[in-house]
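Changelog-linked ticket: 2-phosphoglycolic acid example.
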Amino acid sequence: MARVQIIAANWKMNKTIPEAVAFAREIVQGVDFTGVEVVLCPAFPALGPVAEAVSGSPVRVAAQDVFWEDQGAYTGEVSPVMLRDAGCRYVIIGHSERRQYFGETDETVNRKVKAVLRHGLIPIVCVGERLAEREAGETFAVVERQVTAAFAGVEEAVAAGTVIAYEPVWAIGTGKNAAPEDAQAVNRFIRELVGRLYSPATAAQIRIQYGGSVTPENAASLLGQPDIDGALVGGASLKVSLFAAIINAASKALL
Ligand code: PGA
């Protein structure tokens, strides 16, 4: 069974509510996303309004982070229950910026993954090596550690429906995307790892994105790789024209 490409716009800490809603409307009305799943990931305040703007369309909404408790005295945090309530389907977990600036660890990623799955949300689990790790030849070991930790205690029945985003840290926001063959090699390695952790059937089903300086220019060659099932797009997702061109490249990769 073919995996549906998932193209997600990670807006990070950008866009006010009116800007986010206007973007969502333009995507829903003006972009042909036949055969591609499109996900918008606004900051927390815009989640509800964007979910409302895309309701009735195939476009889905993701949060950029979550806390693992359902409720309670955790000032500043947002729970999976609240994200569901706001209309989210997906949650980005373990983005390298969270790991780098906000103390996210493999262990907290795992707690968050289990928490969102408990509430019927789908995690987009981000993994990827830093430049020094790549230069030391540690890419596969780092990614193996991150994926294994993220999925510890996650049942096979739900694992198959999750999404992993391979995002080499040195490629994020730098304009230096991974070469398509290099990204393919890591995505293939992750799929084989999922096969070892679960089963070949789950490995065949799980979707593995690539992220890191994806643009309309390089999208087709990245998305054309057999084990790259979509993109997590930062900078190029902030403009409708650029993001639409990436969606377009994904639907062409299907042909
Ligand atoms: P970028 O960001 O496309 O700007 O490199 C990707 C990401 O951080 O998800």
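Closing comment: Example verified and attached. Residues 5-253 form a domain with the TIM Barrel fold (CATH 3.20.20.70). The radius of gyration is 17 Å.
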